[in-house]
């Protein structure tokens, strides 16, 4: 695996020279376990949400110039600060960069400034393989009534992912973003790709390539090499999300995610016993761990007791959803089969209503008690 990584990095470096990209000091290698643990010791317990403003249906609407909404972001990250959150996981998109590289980077910088104002750092997600595989720049569609995350888009789309010869079109995006923020203390972690092998069985599976896992691994290897070639001071990760993850039972993609990430990450929407078991399998690799998605109330994944457990293990904790909005993630996943006609009796994700009032005041008090915000 080390030989593969070095070969990919060398090819990326050569390509960078040929294309005129500056390579300062060369690509850094995978952090050793000791380097990763040192990062974990100096980094406070990271706790927060996956975040998109309530006024955006997807990553493109969040980041495009016409719909970037700093006023809403400022107000909502103020709510996050009030909970004691010190980190938010935020999704970028390659098309928003391609459309307007300089403007996109300025908006990301603006977002980071707002987050820092509220004493919040950011995990930036470069790619995502979940939901609509046909992203298009420009105005985004309205939400489908009663459907969970009805407008979220993949990045890159299937048109690029399914053609490995086009993966190189994404190199400028990865280098441009990572290179711009590689030394920025406001960026805490780089999440290279979210659920790269997700075939979206409940929604878009008929449009997905049959060999998506293999294609995703091809892209992930390249993206890691491009990112490392920029020599970021922050760790790289990509979370495993399906299975149990014991050695000997991993797919090639999962093996890469767990063996080539500086710090490890995973998703779990299960009750506490399964969360504990899955965490144990990731902890066995000897690196700091982040749970980058959890909390689906009807599934038995709730703040109480999952957040207290993750804190006790100093595992970074990012629940899905923050403010109920155009993503409609208060509605369950099964709404893709049968749309909901009213607000569900139990919210699936999210913490606050659009007016800033909590869905569950007791839940908010519980979170604030764990973060220490209750005493401030």
Strand and helix map with partners:
Elements: H1 2-19, H2 33-42, E1 47-51, H3 59-63, H4 70-83, E2 87-91, H5 94-99, H6 101-117, E3 121-128, H7 158-161, H8 171-181, E4 187-194, H9 212-229, E5 236-237, H10 252-260, E6 264-267, H11 272-283, E7 289-294, H12 303-312, E8 316-320, H13 361-371
Parallel strand pairs: 1-2, 1-8, 2-3, 3-4, 4-5, 6-7, 7-8
Characterize the structure shown.
The chain is α/β, with parallel strands linked by helices. It is built from 13 helices and 8 strands. Strands 5-4-3-2-1-8-7-6 form an 8-stranded parallel β-sheet. Strand 4 (187-194), helix 9 and strand 5 form a beta-alpha-beta unit. Helix 8 (171-181) crosses helix 9. The longest helix has 18 residues, at 2-19. The protein starts with a helix and ends in a 5-residue tail after the last helix.
Helix content: 25-40%
The count of DSSP E runs of length 2 or more, i.e. the number of strands, is 8
Rounded Rg: 19 Å
**What's the tally of helices?**
13
Largest sheet, spatial ordering of strands: 5-4-3-2-1-8-7-6
Can you give the mean pLDDT?
93
Distance between the termini: 48 Å
Helix-strand string:
HHEHHEHHEHHEHEHEHEHEH
pLDDT < 50 stretches:
1-25
Looking at the structure, what is the overall shape? globular
Q: What fraction of residues sit in β-strands? A: 5-15%
Query: Helix/strand/pairing class, anyone?
Result: alpha/beta
**Major sheet:** 8 strands, parallel
Give a nutshell description of this structure.
This protein has about 375 residues and is an alpha/beta fold.
Using brief descriptors, characterize the structure shown:
about 375 residues; alpha/beta; eight-stranded parallel beta sheet; 13 helices; disordered N terminus
């Amino acid at each position: 695996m080390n030989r593969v990584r070095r070969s990919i990095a060398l090819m990326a470096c050569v390509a960078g020279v040929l294309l005129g990209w500056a390579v300062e000091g060369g690509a850094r290698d995978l952090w050793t376990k000791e380097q990763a643990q040192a990062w974990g010791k100096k980094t406070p317990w990271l706790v927060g949400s996956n975040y998109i403003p309530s006024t955006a249906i997807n990553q493109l609407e969040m980041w495009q110039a016409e719909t970037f909404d700093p006023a809403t972001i400022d107000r909502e990250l103020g709510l996050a600060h009030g909970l004691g959150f010190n980190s938010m996981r935020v999704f970028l998109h390659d098309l928003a960069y391609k459309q307007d590289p300089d403007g996109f980077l300025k908006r990301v910088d603006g977002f980071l400034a707002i987050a820092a104002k509220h004493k919040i750092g950011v995990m930036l997600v470069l790619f995502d393989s979940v939901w609509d595989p046909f992203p298009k720049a420009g105005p985004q569609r309205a939400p489908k009534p009663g459907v969970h995350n009805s407008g979220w888009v993949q990045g890159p789309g299937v048109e690029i992912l399914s053609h490995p010869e086009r993966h190189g079109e994404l190199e400028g995006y990865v280098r441009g973003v990572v290179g711009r923020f590689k030394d920025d203390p406001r960026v805490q972690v780089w999440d290279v790709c979210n659920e790269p092998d997700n075939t979206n069985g409940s929604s878009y599976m008929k449009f997905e390539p049959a060999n998506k896992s293999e294609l995703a691994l091809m892209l992930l290897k390249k993206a890691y090499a491009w990112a490392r070639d920029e020599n970021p001071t922050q760790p790289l990760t990509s979370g495993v999300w399906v299975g149990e993850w014991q050695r000997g039972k991993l797919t090639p993609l999962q093996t890469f995610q767990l063996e080539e990430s500086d710090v490890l990450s995973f998703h779990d929407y299960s009750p506490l016993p399964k969360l504990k078991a899955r965490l144990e399998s990731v902890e066995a690799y000897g690196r700091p761990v982040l749970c980058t998605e959890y909390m689906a109330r009807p599934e038995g994944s709730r703040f109480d007791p999952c957040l207290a457990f993750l804190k006790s293990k100093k595992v970074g904790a990012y629940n899905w959803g923050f403010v109920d909005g155009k993503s409609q993630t208060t509605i369950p996943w099964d709404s893709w089969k049968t749309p909901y006609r009213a607000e569900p009796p139990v919210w699936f994700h999210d913490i606050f209503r659009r007016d800033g009032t909590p869905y569950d005041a007791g839940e908010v008090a519980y979170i604030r008690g764990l973060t220490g915000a209750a005493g401030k």
